Fold this protein.
Amino acid sequence: MRVVPYVSLLRRNRDFSRLYAAQLASFAGDWFATVALLGLALELSGSPAVASLVLVLQTGTFAAASPLAGVLADRLDRRRLLVTADLARVPIALSFILARDADTLWIAFVAVTLLAAFGAVFEPASSASIPNLVEPEELREANVLIGSAWGTMLAVGAALGGFVAATFGRDTAFVVNAASFALSAVLIVGIRRPFQQERAMGEPQQSAGVSGMVSSVAVAIAFARRSRIVAALLLSKTTFGVGTGVVLMLAVFGRDVFGAGDAGIGILFAARGVGALVGPFLARALVGHEDRGLLIGICGSLVVVAVCYALFPLAPTIWLAAILVCAAHLGGGAQWMLSTYGLQRASPDAIRGRIFSFDYGLVTLTIALSTVVAGTLAEVFPPQVAVWVMVGLLSLSGASWVLFSWPAWGRPIREVEPRAGDSGKA
């Protein structure tokens, strides 16, 4: 894997570098807080199902807010939208400190919900902006870097978050999370390039009300129906999301099965992050410069995730388990980057925010449901059985996705021009 193209992009494109650094800061804080919060919920409740609410509220709220977020990303100035979302999350992140016992744990759950709502505004707007911050020939490298940013900070943030929570207390991790959003806002303010293309005079604005949210979903569905490749890319993350409830089990295995407490949670989540970090670079090296291999690469990623998580419950030590988790998320990181890049290539800027909000909304809704299932299974069955059931669900959904996407394999990705009705006038 050659790193020169990525280093060169960061050196010559100041604006993209600032967005990349902002993502790194934000993701690092997120994982500092998530590891500490999962440990807190397990400690105060003693229940995997209650702890699963942390992940369910994160993903479920993100899904619920996504239709409105897509409208905002295409209607408002994306730079201001990103900065506003960051600044709003600073005081919310600090409120985790108020959750001191079982009676006040609800405060943490409310804060998780609010953070996810503003995250739903941030992420689609950020993804929709990238093609405007880089040259067309830089887009693939930009997506590899952004795709790996989540994994980079999951690896660093989860490992450090577990260490900091165990050594200095969970409050320190919550303060770091709040500071990360403030730093992200400062970095984004300094970006000079426009985050979106200028709209034509007289172009209809999208309603931000209920009708606009319904229209946002309708636009994405209508656009996907015109191209099997687009539909397959939109369903890719969701397919992986069916089995993502297994991530909850990382906390259960790290803290209880391996008896390593918050540090154990941090080790397994960090391993997940290393895989998600390397996966996009590995996929870029294997798929190459051609768009034709995107769907094939996503299929290969599915196989890797299913096989590694099927072996995970058999690991005799936390370190071998971490290796399997890392390998699984090589596939997870690869498919996220490949599907995101494909959607950016296929979606025009005028509706790109709504396309990505629909994409993220689908996957986060699926992850929320998957996490509920995993938490319920963990209450009834041994954690090993819960993992294998989730792997089985992932395998079934993966096979369905392969059958659906098969006719589009080997086709190049081209921007699909929206029809007049696709503008989503509401």
Q: What stands out?
A: The chain has 15 helices and no strands.
